[in-house]
Design goal:
alpha+beta, DNA polymerase, domain 1, 2 domains, four-stranded antiparallel beta sheet, 6 strands, globular
Length: about 170
């Protein structure tokens, strides 16, 4: 969701017009900066509004079908997307490559691919469709969940030893 879309959603949840921007900002922070997966975790929002949001909306992530980890810590996920308008549950791949001081995330922007690369499983499928911005962002959020890259996860873990790394 964009901030504007989130403000509109606040209206559907019964938030008064003059509070929508502020409430949208709060929810935005919890979703995209803290990575929460439940409205109940949004402790600076009134309980009755949290319940209305819970009743009206779903905070979703793609389903992890498989997860593989190689010897060097590289992780690969097969993700199943939420059903599309026809009810199809399409799948995409995502890879996280850890480095000593950072990580690289390779996310999908399409279901299938027009290029016939034999080294890439996605390249063996024909192009089905482009992903939505929300589906791409959901991949990033899923990766952050799995590698524990949210502020509360980082704050709870001490820094790695000198020369060490998190994966």
């Amino acid at each position: 969701l964009t901030r504007e879309g989130l403000a509109e959603a606040m209206g559907r949840a019964g938030v008064q017009e003059k509070q929508r921007r502020m409430r949208a900002g709060q929810v935005w922070h919890w979703l995209y900066h803290r990575g929460v997966t439940s409205f109940a975790e949004m402790t600076n929002i009134a309980k009755d509004l949290r319940q209305r949001l819970e009743d009206e909306f779903v905070i979703g992530r793609p389903e992890i079908v498989t997860e593989q980890t190689s010897n060097d810590g590289t992780k690969k996920w097969l993700l199943r997307l939420a059903p599309d308008a026809r009810g199809a549950r399409l799948e995409v791949e995502m890879v996280y490559i850890p480095e000593e001081d950072r990580g690289t995330l390779c996310s999908s922007s399409q279901v299938g691919c027009p290029l016939p690369c034999t080294f890439c499983p996605t390249g063996t499928q024909k192009l089905v469709r482009n992903l939505t911005a929300g589906e791409i962002v959901a991949q990033v959020m899923t990766a952050r969940d799995r590698v524990k890259d949210w502020p509360q996860d980082i704050e709870a873990n001490p820094p790695p030893p000198l020369g060490g790394r998190y994966i």
